[in-house]
Amino acid sequence: MKSILFRFYSNLLNHKYRNPFSLNSRLFSSEISVLIEPVVKSNYQRTHTCGELNSSHVGQNVTLCGWLEFQRLDRFAVLRDGYGSTQVIVPENRNEIINELKRTPLESVVTVSGVVEKRPESQIKKNMSTGEIEVMANDFSIINAVKKKLPFSIRNYSKASENLRIKHRYLDLRYPVMQKNLRERSKLLLKMRNYLINHENFVEVETPTLFKKTPGGAREYIVPTKFPGEFYSLVQSPQQLKQLLMVGGIDKYFQIARCYRDEGARPDRQPEFTQLDLEMSFCSTENIMELIEKMLFYSWPEQLQIPFARLSFTDAMKLYGTDQPDLSFKCPIFEVSELENHKEDSTTIHGVKIPQAAEFFGDEVKKELSKMIKDSSVQVAILNYKKKSFKTNEKTLFNFNISPEKFSRNHGIESGDIVFIARGEEKKTLQLLGKCRVSYLRWLRSEGITGPWESSDKGTFLWIINFPLFETAEDGSLSSVHHPFTAPHPDDLSLLSTNPLMVHGLHYDLVLDGYEVGGGSVRIHNPDLQKNILSMLNISRDSLEHLICALESGAPPHGGIALENFQIHNLVLSQELFSTLVAVKNC
Questions:
Q1: 400: exposed, middle or buried (C-beta count within 10 Å: 0-12, 13-18, 19+)?
Q2: Residue partners of 315: CB distance under 8 A and separation at least 6
Q3: Can you tell me the distance from the alpha carbon of 135 to that of 79, in angstroms, rounded to the nearest whole number?
Q4: Rounded distance between C-alpha atoms, residue 572 and residue 160, angstroms
Q5: Fewest beta carbons less than 10 Å away: which of 145, 266, 468, 487?
Q6: Does residue 162 surpass a pLDDT of 90?
Q7: How many CB atoms lie within 10 A of CB 385?
Q8: For residue 439, what are the β-bridge partners?
Q9: Within 13 Å and on the Cβ side, how many CA atoms surround 44?
Q10: 3-state class (DSSP) for residue 505
Q11: Is the peptide bond before 307 cis (omega within 30 degrees of 0)?
């Protein structure tokens, strides 16, 4: 065995195998299979997993290991592991097993040996992978008994609070959905790696986690050193490092990168998270978007339609009040222009209609939306339309000067609809309506309520394009919409000095059902342009001297993207997978 290992590593060091992971490589020869086959085949103390047995195994002697999930009448038990559950029956005459089972606490680790039997036709459970069979036990042993009462039971119908489950994450991971999501995430990343390396000739490169603090972006974690006054910074992303790789001639790079941001947790991102990070030279925005579409088409567990739909930043804001629109719902925002006696001012009035949803608008959701509206400077009226008239506060209607009949006729409002109307500065008005729209519609979905607001576009990827390069910060200065390394659109270069807020960036986001799952851009490769952008943003060049020096050393045009939210835990996959793919990082 030692000689095999020695030859294996010696050949790698001598570059005997150019691609050690190629399917045609000698690394998959019989001499290497000696190293891995016994581990795979031994299966430790079990012959099968708890999700593996079916009618083809009837009559076989098997040994299962897992957690005791249920126990009934001291003769019926269910064993669970990461692959599924299997029912076990103890023969009536095996009192020693019955007594052992009786004293075994739930969630103890046990092993059962027995014979696979076919279930009676009336007892087959079609919703279980092992629902056709059961195991008649002839041996039962406790491997590790639970010593005390657990903080919560592993039951889907009675889940503990999220805080308690996170505190005892090792127990939470026993839930079948968590097991499924972790395994699906692993398969997804494997397929992504395979596509990028074997189909697109990318190189996987690990970049440093400890780096220097740089301006812009999110707040970074500071790591002290043994030298007084000297610190590292944990990278918030490998952005600058991968640009340096492009300068070094690694023209197609990727990695599954760990990122750190010292900011509050969000449902789709934690302070520490993982992203699929990639960069390529001599590319355009079209090249990168096409690459991502093909990679996801190859690796996604469900069939995708490519190319993905596209929506401009401007249209996304006008129709949905956000650059992360949830197209799994209909109900776009509309402009309200038919107002009586409306004074000329700088405000705009917009609305959003949720058809046939008025009857569900109760106190719970009303309280949530009221808080959202109260925190805004925008005026809002919530109109419940019944019998050709609005049921709402008369003063609110008077303030808006709306003729209910004309308004409902113009916008196709019918009895049973609910309408949100908002007046204020255009950007804030659209953003608030966008939040009201998605908040109410997601609440309806969480309650299992469906209606004409549901869209057939659920689970559909969407590109958001044509972003502005700059926006105005609270203090009136310019700030980057993406980051200071994003290249301006070539057609807008002349506007940099005259009207920078009109400059578009070569920036693109990938959105799925209201969540940003990726974002990237074509980068600035010209050192003079990069210096100019930094100057416009009031960012000191000294802090980025290493990057500017690299750009001055012959940098190729390059761009990239990071898919960072394959973890979100409040979607349903089809969205179940996407769910934990975006929250699995929280484990």
A1: buried
A2: none
A3: 10
A4: 19
A5: 266
A6: no
A7: 22
A8: none
A9: 7
A10: strand
A11: yes
Closest to 84 (Cα-Cα) out of 117, 127, 124: 127
- Are 141 and 110 spatial neighbours (Cβ–Cβ below 8 Å)? yes
Tokens 């070569």 — which residue? 506
CB 561 within 8 A of CB 292: yes
For the chain, the C-alpha Rg in angstroms (whole number) is 29
**CA–CA gap between residue 34 and residue 17 (Å, rounded):** 19
| Other CB atoms within 10 A of residue 216 CB | 16
> Cβ-count burial of 487 within 10 angstroms (0-12 exposed, 13-18 middle, 19+ buried)?
buried
Q: Amino acid identity of 584?
A: V
Residues 584 and 535 sit within 8 Å (Cβ to Cβ): no
Average pLDDT over the chain, rounded to an integer: 85
Element (H, E) at 445: helix 426-446
Compute CA distances 102 → 109, 188, 248, 266, 566, whole Å: 14, 42, 66, 44, 43
Task: Specify the DSSP element, H or E, that contains 442.
Answer: helix 426-446
One-letter amino acid for residue 304 of the chain: L
Structure tokens at 408: 């409902």
Which phi and psi (to 5°) does residue 18 adopt? -65, -40
pLDDT digits (tens, 9 = 90+) for 36-71: 333 333 445 899 999 999 999 999 999 999 999 999
Select from 210, 60, 32, 81 the least CA-distant residue to 133: 60
For tokens 């430790």, the residue is: 44
- Determine the length of the chain: 587
Question: What band does 34 get if pLDDT is binned at 50, 70 and 90?
Answer: very low
Residue with tokens 């126990």: 71
